[in-house]
Amino acid sequence: MADTHTFASDQQILGRADIDDLEAIMAIVNTDAAETIHAVKDNADAIFTWDYEKGQRPALNKLYEKAKTAQWNGETDLDWSIDVDPEQILAGLLGPNAAGPFQALSQRDDSPFKHFDEKDWSNLGVESMNWRLSQFMHGEQGALLCTAKIVETVPWIDAKYYASTQVMDEARHVEVFAKYLDSKLTGYYPINAHLKMLLDDIINDSRWDMTYLGMQIMVEGLALAAFGFMHMICEEPLLKQLLRYVMSDEARHVAFGVLSLKEYYAELSDAELRERQEFAFEAAVRMRDRFLQQEVWERMGIDTRKMVRMLLDVPPEDMIFQQMLFSKIVPNCKKLGLLDASGGWLRKRFEEIGVIQFEDWKDTGEEYLELDAVSQDRAAAAASA
Ligand SMILES: [Fe+2]
Ligand SMILES: [Fe+2]
User: Fold this and answer.
1) How confident is the model at residue 340, as a pLDDT?
2) Residue 72, in any domain of the structure
3) CB 3.0 to 4.6 Å from 188: which of 173, 181, 211, 343, for a disulfide?
């Protein structure tokens, strides 16, 4: 009989035995960067429910009612007349050193940055920002597809109702990031190969809760943390407002994941939970790999292999932005019971990749109430009228 306590190996989960295997990471490439269409096999059944009783899941019903009144319009609620200076975004986001996180690496003898002047640092900052916003845009499209899929696959009417509002939110997010990149910056980067692989895996999975785990908990958990961090330090007014509105929606989306899976995971067997733990770990590693930003090094003519090796060697505690990205994911995984199921396997894996320190940060079940930008703006407008 198979040992039910055995986890799959890293080779099976990640396609490589060593998390930091440079060659295996570099072998994941985006082969159809020039194509405009990418098809993924969606293996799930579309589920009807004949149980229409609304509010059987009060927390989801509350979220749905909130979402109905929190819709905004990307065309009219954002001031697109603002002139954007990319250097201003950078000054705010990265501090006086345009490429802050990478600057520490310039001291090393073999560093590709060794002879960088001010202009080079500024270029790197602009490229990194374009790349980052482009990946968020692609991730938003992933969320659009995943949430449309959840409308079909989740068996609960309250969840179908809520998910339908998220589909609209995600359409708006893709729209505003595309418009910002296109009209205010210099266009966008193709999707990063690691992000693409993760989105494909999420959509490919036939189990409805895996869409939630991959998208609402992992990808959107990361996005919520990133948007929060970027919003806090951003000084460019249009991007700042855009991030504030998007974030206010994302907080609901992550709450949707936490509230739905909390109920569902309570009924799963240990073996089923182990598969969820493995998937959460796989997603975390793919997202870490994504932030090696290979496409930026390629575009800048920097030796990508050397650069990725250097970044893999940086201790996690020196990569503050990358670490902060996990500040929502880890507490939410804890709340869902994924950290400590099966002898704490996921806890150990999160320790290995240096993100476990966030476990007792606030989870995201209720945060959407504090971040509700639309209600705040309406209240402020009513008070000043
Ligand atoms: Fe979104
Ligand atoms: Fe979202």
Assistant:
1) 95
2) no
3) 181
